[in-house]
Design a protein that fits this description.
The protein has helices spanning 28-36, 85-96, 160-170, 207-215, 263-270; strands at residues 10-13, 17-23, 52-57, 63-72, 75-81, 102-105, 110-115, 130-133, 142-146, 221-228, 238-241, 244-253, 256-262, 276-278, 281-286. The protein is of the alpha+beta class. Strands 10-13-12-11-14-15 form a 6-stranded antiparallel barrel. Strands 3-4-5-2-6 form a 5-stranded antiparallel beta sheet. Strands 1-7-9-8 form a 4-stranded antiparallel beta sheet, covered by helices on one side. The N and C termini lie far apart (40 Å).
Length: 297
């Protein structure tokens, strides 16, 4: 029987995700210390009830990978893009040096987004695996990881397209689908507002450029939500203003999408006398609501 006062969230399978397990004979504190020197967020803030969102950058401060980091069963678990999981594992192994850290890809585990309902307290099938509230935005719900053979025990399964509609509607980028590898900057893609970078932690790979971008006001482009006058073309399509390059389209669904735009071009278009065009389709652009006032914790 469904409890209408405390409904179960809707589980939506996320087929493009994979799970890495990082562990050490010296305990999870050793794993946190190792990872803390590499990623953009502070692993000291991870707990049994709190996961982190973070990125691994190049030494030049450019985007390479994003990830969720959760603690469970005396290990850290990295929720990452499946098509780049092995590449990330190799990259972490290069930084491991003599540290006693095992890095293992967990075959067969399945990720679910949990949308609506009462959150993790009523998560279907949580006892079989682990879950965490999405640390980026409350509107994205929670995430659930289940081992091979397990499945959510409650809730009407949702379609992945519904999750993409929600994500794009909130203006949230999805890793390398929306951020150009070895070129994108975190603050162009709202990592501060999405709680993915900590400016008070110690050093990490690529920290210098990230801090300089923030404190010297060097952001010249940002990720915008866009709505087209017709269905949007493929990701990577060029956006123009007065025939000049203004940016590039990222992921989209129907008429709604995300685009990396030059701030100067976006401001001119917002003035109302010039139109952003993408393959002849007129675009309206605005910054995501959450990005209006970035927060740092």
């Amino acid at each position: 029987m469904t409890d209408t006062n405390n409904p179960s969230p809707q589980p939506i399978a996320l087929p493009g995700r994979a799970l890495l397990r990082l562990a050490s004979p010296d305990g999870v504190a050793a794993v946190k210390s190792f990872l803390n020197g590499l990623i953009s967020n502070d692993t000291g803030r991870i707990g049994a009830d709190r996961a982190l969102y973070a990125a691994l950058l190049s030494p030049q401060g450019k985007f390479l990978f994003d990830m969720f980091v959760a603690e469970w069963q005396d290990a850290l678990w990295l929720d990452v893009a499946a098509d780049r999981a092995e590449e990330l594992a190799r990259k972490l192994a290069l930084y491991r040096l003599r540290a006693k850290i095992s890095i293992d890809l967990q075959a067969g585990w399945q990720a679910f987004a949990l949308i609506g309902g009462a959150g993790l307290d009523s998560a279907p099938g949580l006892a079989a695996g682990f879950g965490f509230t999405d640390p980026r935005l409350a509107g994205l719900g929670a995430r659930l990881w289940l081992p091979p053979g397990a499945a959510p025990s409650q809730g009407e399964p949702g379609d992945f397209a519904a999750y993409e509609k929600l994500r794009i509607g909130l203006g949230v980028p999805d890793g390398a689908q929306d951020i150009e590898i070895d070129k994108g900057l975190l603050l162009e893609h709202h990592f501060e507002a999405l709680h993915g970078v900590d400016f008070r932690k110690g050093c990490y790979v690529g920290q210098e450029l990230t801090a300089r971008t923030k404190y010297r006001g060097l952001v010249k482009k940002q990720l915008f939500q866009v709505r087209g006058s017709a269905a949007l073309p493929a990701a990577g399509s060029q956006i123009t203003l007065d025939g000049q390059e203004a940016g590039w389209l990222r992921s989209s669904q129907g008429q709604d999408g995300l685009a990396l735009l030059r701030l100067e071009a976006a401001a001119k278009a917002a003035a109302g006398d010039r139109a952003l065009l993408c393959d002849g389709i007129a675009l309206e652009a605005r910054l995501p609501d959450y990005a209006a006032q970035p927060e740092s914790e």
